[in-house]
């Protein structure tokens, strides 16, 4: 089953949770206690050397960064409905991923 490491006050974790729900995928939510510094412990740094949530584990795939995870999930499970392959529509999706990570955040 897909595992998502995150924290409930993390907007980047929320983005991934929301998309997993929209895709109707089963997943296990694993809270990383940011307040206790669990994201800087060796066990978590082995998943993401940046020491940040979210991190997605899907079988052999371990992936950090909300935008990268959204792209992975869209292509792996959502098909063209969520992530088109044509140049301009794809660029428009990336534009809004970038805006969400930048200006909106
Ligand atoms: N580029 C990353 C940034 C992730 C990020 O900033 N995560 C925050 C929580 S929203 C975090 O783990 N902060 C703890 C830290 O940086 O020490 C993404 O978009 O997922």
How is the topology of this model organized?
Blueprint lengths: L1 E5 L4 H13 L3 E5 L10 H4 L9 E4 L2 E4 L1 H13 L8 H18 L1
Parallel strand pairs: 1-2
Antiparallel strand pairs: 1-3, 3-4
Helix pairs in contact: 1-3
Bound molecules: glutathione.
Glutathione (GSH) binds next to helix 1 and helix 3.
Fraction of helical residues: 40-55%
Distance between the termini: 29 Å
Instruction: Sketch the major β-sheet.
Output: 4 strands, mixed
Associated small molecules? glutathione
Count of β-strands? 4
CATH class: Alpha Beta
Name the CATH superfamily classification.
Glutaredoxin
Please state the second-level CATH architecture: 3-Layer(aba) Sandwich
Number of domains: 1
Structural class of the secondary structure composition?
Answer: alpha+beta
Counting H and I runs of at least 4 residues, what is the number of helices? 4
Q: Would you tell me which CATH topology applies?
A: Glutaredoxin
Mean pLDDT across the residues is 96
Strand order of the biggest β-sheet: 2-1-3-4
Radius of gyration: 14 Å
Please characterize this protein's 3D structure.
46% of the residues lie in helices and 17% in strands. It has 105 residues and is of the alpha+beta class. The relative contact order is 0.16. It is built from 4 helices and 4 strands, in the order E-H-E-H-E-E-H-H. A 4-stranded mixed β-sheet has the order 2-1-3-4, covered by helices on one side. The model has no long low-confidence stretch (mean pLDDT 96). The structure holds glutathione.
